[in-house]
């Protein structure tokens, strides 16, 4: 190719190559055995130019290479780089990757309960750790040049998302920020905000998957393509996506019911033929079993696969089903390798704990190439599954959706059992964003030519809806930022109240709220221009027409109010008269389709009222009498059939033999009704005098209206029409202004309420943070203020380490499903007293929050402490065996370890925040950490 270039062009190309080789990017690219994608090169070049970057790209596209380039730049410049991740497992994985490249001496790890080489030039940490360092003014921040925020879209998380924004806002200006995100539909908006708070930020968006994704539906014995051949399957293309007509026909056939058992007019032979046809159709459509799915994928060369099941128990059950079905995905050599790796990784686990942890059943599945992966598993077991899967020694994993959150575990295929999951409150359809996140695992870069997403057929499945889910790429980033008590005291301590308020106004939450206000503000401006025109149109030369229009409006409103009151009184009187009816009363129905003479068969009284009548129907929306009309119809009437009160004209006996379904019975009783009461002429309901006629307010308004100068204007009605338009537009404009007011300064207003409460409780005095406030500044967590109050009131004094662990567990534990029916088991003695006192203090705080309008529903405030883990924490800290503790706690090992580690984290904070003099809390908190950090908790994970 170079031979075809002119000398000048060859010289220019040589200059470009020389310039590229002189950059830091050139030696970095040489570290990889594949060339970088254009979006990676663009992001790295922006980073080297001194800009911050936001990289939004699909899962598995290699956006972490940009983060690794930041590490490379920091080391080359003699500066520090912090690499933050949302979860410890991801921190551990990234730490291992960077140690392999740069060596253990240059890389550190900091998680809530672990510290490895924390002063290294490159430190991997969870985002919360960096937030805490920023508030504490840690010396480790000196020389910090780059911060990588992996999975930055976590700031949408309603429980932890605020931490990401705190870090972004509070990082020193000298730090270059690298934000790595999944594909989001408002990346430009997020980039605009980063540009505002962090300075020059380049937004690089790549929607192209590195490995094309093919979408399928597995039904019965067949696997159907979701999209018709020749259209885009969710890979690189942007072509039209037509749903496979075979799938549409299948859905129509499955949903069609050819046999109607209620149709008795059809002959027996026809019904049998219909049933047989339906059986044949159904036999072609079913949801394949889990072993059958794995077997099919294996036969078609689509393993390794991750099957997402939105239930931990179902993941474990799926493994057992595959074992019982005799599935074996590994040969003898792979089985031996699996056993070797597993025994090596679990060597530290005491033999007596292995049986408790279900080790042998787990190992059998691994040897066959089958495993589960969910948060209830021991972290060590999860890490082993991840390692074996990446090595190709586990080929089928049944996982909950937590696996989709950042862990590097790509597969050739992803299977979704259902498109519905429990969201903590109800079963809800998964969103397009969740579908993209889950199926993003399919297709291993550099290994697979294409990835495959397989959805299992379910009854009433709509292929069009599934295609919409697979084809929608909307995953907007929404801020979940809310000020907390800890945040408030830390901000005031560092910046003072006024500056803190200004900082919070720069949050992404406020940025989004302000941006949504722009369109409303423009509408308000247009409305104000329209109001000016209407004001000119209603101008009257005789006087103030706006005042005259207000009188007319007040008069109309008063007349409407009185009319409504009158109608309500008439309805109440009619309902009261209906409640007095009894079976056998002859009445006259005043209006409606069944107006005329009628006999009451059943009064149909409201629920709970019987009027001396047993049986019959009861209704919650007023009496609904069942009547027989003079025309032999039996009908249940409603309150609308009685606009006026009704009275019994006569009484009749209803024969015991009367059957409302019998035409003869109805005919005989209707004849008796006409004979008995046909000659009676009902009293006409006399119309009552209107309340408006005697209303003093209406009399006054009418007099003022007649006396007003504009009343005599010839163009009065024209002016009135303009005035009515003016009034309607003014009302709409005020509603828009209220919406703007509700969205403007929302974060700052919440901060003001929090500061007011903290001032009331003597945590703050103006810009001064009191001793109590300084203690609160060291307590991070959902129940930060409750923990501080417990220290302040000396609730935990005199508790031994196990009792303190039990009490602190109530600050972190939150049951997966609320169970108010059974009170949790708690330790007796001093621990029980302290827990009760914690709940009492929470009640006091809850009342204060209500007084200061701090709303828990908005994610601000203190939830009630949960005592559900207190017994387990106490028993474990008291050196009880794992078997006994797990059995009594009725909790999976993984959950137990996770909660223990969170208790350890908060105990460490309490040890740092507790008073040093005349207090045993700090000493016992450290002892409680040592008591909890043993056995399965200690060896569970690197971080």
Short summary:
The protein is an alpha/beta fold and 943 residues long. The chain is 48% helix and 11% strand.
Description:
- There is one protein chain.
- By secondary structure, the protein is an alpha/beta fold.
- 48% of the residues lie in helices and 11% in strands.
- The chain is built from 34 helices and 24 strands.
- The strands form five sheets. An eight-stranded mixed beta sheet has the order 4-3-5-2-6-7-1-8, sandwiched between helices.
- β18 and β19 (596-602) form a beta hairpin.
- α30 runs antiparallel to α31 (882-889).
- Residues 233-239, 258-265 and 607-619 have low confidence and may be disordered.
What percentage of the residues does DSSP assign to strands (E)?
5-15%
User: Unreliable runs, pLDDT <50, ≥5 residues?
Assistant: 233-239, 258-265, 607-619
Helical amount:
40-55%
Overall mean confidence score, pLDDT:
82
Structural class: alpha/beta
Instruction: Give a count of the beta strands, DSSP E runs of length 2 or more.
Output: 24
Overall morphology: globular
Q: What does the radius of gyration come to?
A: 37 Å
From the structure provided, what is the oligomeric state, counting identical versus distinct chains? single chain
Q: How many strands, which pairing sense, and closed or not: the largest β-sheet?
A: 8 strands, mixed
Distance between the termini: 53 Å
* Number of helices, counting only DSSP H or I runs of 4 residues or more: 34
């Amino acid at each position: 190719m170079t031979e075809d270039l002119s000398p000048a062009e060859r010289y220019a190309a040589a200059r470009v190559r020389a310039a590229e080789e002189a950059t830091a990017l050139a030696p970095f690219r040489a570290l990889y055995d594949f060339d970088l994608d254009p979006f990676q090169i663009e992001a790295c070049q922006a980073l080297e130019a001194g800009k911050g970057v936001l990289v939004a790209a699909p899962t598995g596209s290699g956006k972490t290479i940009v983060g690794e380039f930041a590490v490379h730049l920091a080391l080359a410049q003699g500066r520090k780089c912090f690499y933050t991740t949302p979860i410890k497992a991801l921190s551990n994985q990234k730490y291992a990757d960077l140690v392999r490249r740069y060596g253990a001496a240059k890389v550190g790890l900091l998680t809530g309960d672990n510290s490895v080489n924390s002063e290294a030039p490159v430190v991997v940490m969870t985002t919360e750790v960096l937030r805490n360092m920023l508030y504490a003014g840690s010396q480790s921040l000196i020389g910090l040049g780059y911060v990588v925020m992996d999975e930055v879209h976590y700031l949408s998380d309603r429980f932890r998302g605020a931490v990401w924004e705190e870090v972004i806002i509070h990082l020193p200006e000298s730090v270059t920020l690298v934000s790595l995100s999944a594909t989001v539909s408002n990346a430009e908006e997020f980039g605009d905000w980063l540009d505002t708070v962090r300075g020059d930020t380049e937004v690089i968006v790549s929607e192209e998957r590195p490995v094309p994704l093919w979408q399928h539906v597995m039904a019965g014995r067949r696997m159907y393509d979701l999209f018709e051949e020749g259209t885009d399957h969710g890979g690189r293309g942007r072509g039209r996506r037509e749903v496979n007509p075979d799938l549409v026909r299948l859905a129509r056939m499955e949903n069609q019911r050819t046999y109607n058992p209620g149709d008795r007019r059809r002959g027996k032979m026809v019904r049998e033929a219909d049933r047989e046809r339906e059986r044949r159709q159904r036999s072609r459509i079913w949801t394949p079993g889990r072993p059958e799915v794995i077997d099919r994928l294996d036969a078609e060369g689509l393993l390794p696969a991750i099957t997402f099941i939105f239930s931990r128990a179902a993941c474990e059950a799926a493994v057992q089903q595959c074992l019982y079905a005799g599935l074996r995905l590994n040969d003898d050599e792979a089985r031996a390798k699996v056993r070797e790796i597993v025994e090596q990784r679990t060597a530290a686990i005491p033999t007596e704990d292995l049986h408790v942890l279900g080790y042998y059943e787990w190992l059998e599945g691994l040897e066959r190439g089958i495993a589960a992966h969910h948060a209830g598993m021991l972290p060590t077991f999860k890490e082993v599954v991840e390692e074996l899967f990446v090595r190709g020694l586990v080929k089928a994993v049944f996982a909950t959706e937590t696996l989709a959150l950042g862990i590097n575990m790509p597969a050739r295929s992803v299977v979704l059992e259902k498109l519905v999951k429990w969201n903590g409150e109800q079963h809800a359809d998964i969103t397009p964003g969740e579908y993209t996140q889950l199926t993003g695992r399919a297709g291993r870069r550099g290994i697979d030519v294409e990835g495959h997403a397989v959805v299992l057929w379910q009854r009433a499945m709509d292929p069009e809806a599934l295609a919409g889910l697979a084809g929608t790429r909307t995953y907007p980033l929404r801020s979940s930022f809310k000020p907390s008590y800890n945040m408030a005291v830390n901000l005031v301590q560092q910046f003072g109240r006024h500056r803190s308020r200004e900082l919070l106004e720069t949050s992404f939450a406020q940025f989004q709220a302000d941006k949504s206000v722009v369109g409303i503000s423009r509408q308000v401006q247009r409305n104000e221009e329209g109001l000016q025109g209407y004001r000119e149109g209603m101008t009257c030369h005789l006087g103030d027409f706006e005042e005259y229009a207000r009188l007319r409006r007040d008069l109309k409103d008063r007349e409407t109010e009185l009319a409504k009151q009158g109608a309500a009184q008439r309805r109440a009187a009619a309902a009261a008269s209906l409640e007095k009816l009894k079976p056998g009363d002859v009445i006259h129905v005043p209006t409606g389709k069944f107006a005329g003479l009628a006999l009451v068969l059943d009064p149909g009284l409201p629920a709970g009222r019987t009027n001396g009548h047993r049986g019959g129907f009861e209704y919650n929306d007023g009496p609904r009498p069942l009547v027989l009309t003079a025309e032999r119809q039996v009908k249940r009437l409603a309150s609308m059939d009685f606009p006026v009160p009704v009275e019994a004209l006569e009484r009749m006996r209803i024969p015991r033999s009367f059957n409302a379904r019998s035409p003869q019975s109805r005919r005989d009783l209707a004849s008796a009704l006409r004979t008995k009461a046909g000659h009676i002429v009902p009293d006409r309901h006399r119309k009552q005098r209107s309340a408006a006629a005697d209303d003093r307010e209406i009399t006054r308004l009418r007099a003022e209206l007649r006396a007003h100068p504009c009343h005599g204007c010839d163009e009065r009605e024209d002016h009135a029409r303009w005035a009515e338009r003016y009034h309607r537009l003014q009302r709409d404009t005020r509603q828009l202004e209220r919406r703007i007011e509700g969205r403007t300064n929302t974060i700052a207003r919440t901060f003001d309420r929090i500061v007011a409460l903290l001032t009331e409780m003597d945590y703050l005095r103006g810009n001064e943070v009191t001793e109590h406030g300084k203690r609160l500044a060291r307590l991070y967590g959902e129940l930060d203020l409750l923990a501080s109050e417990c220290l302040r009131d000396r609730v935990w004094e005199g508790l031994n380490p196990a009792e303190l662990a039990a009490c602190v567990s109530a600050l972190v534990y939150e049951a997966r499903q609320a169970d108010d029916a059974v009170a949790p088991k708690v330790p007796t003695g001093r621990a029980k007293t302290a827990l009760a006192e914690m709940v009492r203090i929470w009640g006091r705080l809850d009342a204060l929050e209500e007084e200061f309008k701090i709303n828990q529903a908005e994610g601000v405030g203190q939830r009630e402490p949960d005592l559900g883990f207190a017994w387990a924490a106490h028993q474990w800290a008291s050196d009880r065996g794992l078997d006994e503790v797990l059995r009594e706690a009725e909790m999976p090992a993984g959950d137990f370890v996770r909660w223990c580690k969170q208790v350890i984290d908060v105990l460490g904070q309490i040890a740092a925040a507790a008073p040093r003099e005349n207090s045993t809390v700090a000493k016992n908190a450290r002892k409680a950490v040592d008591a909890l950090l043993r056995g399965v908790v200690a060896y569970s994970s690197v971080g």
